Amino acid sequence: MIKIGNIELGEFPLLLAPMEDVSDPPFRAVCKDNGADMMYTEFISSEGLIRDARKSLVKLDIFEYERPIGIQIFGGDVEVMKEAALIAEGASPDLVDINYGCPVKGVACKGAGASLLRDLPRMVRITEEIVKAVKLPVTVKTRLGWDDDTKNVPEVAERLQDIGIQALSIHGRTRVQMYKGSADWTLIGEIKNNPRIKIPIFGNGDITTPEKALEAKMKYGVDGIMIGRASIGHPWIFNEIKHYLKTGQLLPPPGVYDRYLVAKKHLERSVEWKGERVGVMEMRRHYSNYFKSFPNFKEHRMKLVTTDDPKEVLALLDDVLAAYSDWEFVA
Predict the structure, then answer these.
(1) What number of other Cβ atoms are within 10 A of residue 196's Cβ?
(2) Which of 59, 145, 253, 319 could be bridged to 151 by S-S, CB 3.0 to 4.6 A?
(3) Residue 81's closest CA among 141, 129, 20, 124?
(4) CA 295, CA 2: separation in Å to the nearest integer?
């Protein structure tokens, strides 16, 4: 049984990665329905939290059905991060996660996210202050290093474990790689197999199929897997992996009705949480993903992304279901 503090996650948990503008409550709801064992909020700016910035505060919204769930924060100032962690704790998540992996310029070039991989003393200070300040388990998500010449995540793992973090998720790329090239799980495996490391180690990067998940488990020995981009438009990936690990057999790809139901629920939750106007607009980015590879889908998509009334959008989804009811989806 893999545990983070007192949080029991099963034998080989599958975690939904925190993704900006993706892993909001509506998206998390459909991933939870489809087998995600633990989820995280979108990453939240520590500066935004202590300024009461609305965009940051709304990301603190969590719901009972999502548990266990972590709130992830990022920033580069020790005191600001400590204060933000206390604000996050006040929202009653199951844990607080620190982002030391975000590679985007707006974060990394402002002394936060992956930039802390170039300043381990400050990373340690921030982490230590948060661990001391909050009563919840503290976890960290990071990368292999800043670039190929500074892959220092083995040192990061030991130092952060020593000051009290209770799990570590590692994306198998450097900051310079961004999301390009292939994820390298070699160092992730070395950390997991380091006898000094006692906390759970979760691997992240390029797990797009059940077969790749099995390889990561068997070859690198990780305690679980964190899945990000592969879940976009395909939240079924969590249950597909679980079924494959248990039986060695692949589930058939989700059919038209499965996709219709998930898109419908995602829309309904989006409208419920964000209101009709914003909920409908922000859902538009997801239709192409849910109905990817559907032949001659352009006309349906154009209607879905130009209609403002949620009832009309639901009717359009009904039209999609009717139009493709006899079509068999092939992955």
Answers:
(1) 10
(2) 145
(3) 129
(4) 43
Nearest to 74 by CA among 126, 22, 4: 126
pLDDT digits (tens, 9 = 90+) for 190-209: 999 999 999 999 999 999 99
Q: Where are the alpha helices (DSSP H) in 196-296?
A: 210-220, 237-247, 256-274, 276-283, 287-290
Quick: pLDDT tens for 231-269.
Answer: 999 999 999 999 999 999 999 999 999 999 999 999 999
Asked whether 239 and 32 are in contact (CB, 8 A), the reply is: no
Residue pointed to by tokens 């049984």: 1
Whether 284 contacts 272, CB under 8 Å: no
Quote the pLDDT of residue 331.
58
Question: Does residue 102 have an active-site annotation?
Answer: yes
Contact 189, 216 (CB under 8 A): no
| Domain coordinates in residue numbering, the chain | 3-247, 256-323
> What was the pLDDT predicted at 330?
61
Query: What is the greatest pairwise CA distance in the chain?
Result: 60
pLDDT for residue 115: 87
Calpha distance 250→248 (Å, rounded): 7
Active site residue: 71, 102, 107, 199, which one? 102
| Cβ-based burial of 268 (10 A; exposed 0-12, middle 13-18, buried ≥19) | middle
Return the SS3 of 215: helix
Task: Enter the DSSP assignment of 209.
Answer: S
CATH 1.10.357.120 matches 3-247: no
Angle value at C-alpha 194, between 167 and 38, nearest 5 degrees? 20
As a whole number, mean pLDDT of residues 155-161 equals: 96
Task: Name the nearest CA neighbour of 232 among 94, 37, 13, 36.
Answer: 36
Residue with tokens 């992830």: 72
Can you tell me which residue has the tokens 């039986």? Answer: 247
Q: What pLDDT band is residue 108 in, cutting at 50, 70 and 90? A: low
According to DSSP, residue 17 is labeled P
